[in-house]
Amino acid sequence: MLEQLTELLLEDEALTDGLSDEEASELLGWLIGIAESLEAESGEMPQAYISQLKQFGREIARISSRYKVPVQELIDLVELAWEEPNETLSPKPMRA
After folding, report:
1. Helix, strand or coil for residue 83?
2. Cα–chain center distance at 10
3. What is the pLDDT of residues 17-45, one digit of tens each?
4. 50: pLDDT confidence band, cut at 50, 70 and 90?
């Protein structure tokens, strides 16, 4: 299933629209990592998650392109928001 999802992500040009090759690679790698984690937790990947994951990637690409925010900074922001409240914060400094 993960191979099929990877293929779907790579074929969806809207996921990388307006991004450099490096940013597109970062975004796709991150989305595939999320898919791997979801599949490892539940043993399967429901179709609803695939659609949401693709939409999420499109929105990150759109924000990055429109506002010139690097994809990696958007990914860092999302991961910060997803951290468990009792997890220690990442030592990464904030970038302006």
Report:
1. coil
2. 13
3. 899 999 999 999 999 999 888 888 877 77
4. confident
> Three-class SS of residue 50?
helix
**Distance between terminal CA atoms of the chain?**
39
In one-letter notation, the amino acid at residue 56 is F
**Distance between CA atoms of residues 38 and 71, nearest Å:** 22
Torsion of the alpha carbons at 18, 22, 34 and 82, rounded to the nearest 10: -80
Say which residue the tokens 């996921």 belong to.
15
- H-run or E-run covering 2: helix 2-11
Q: Is the pLDDT of residue 16 over 70?
A: yes
Distance of CA 5 to the CA centre of its chain: 13
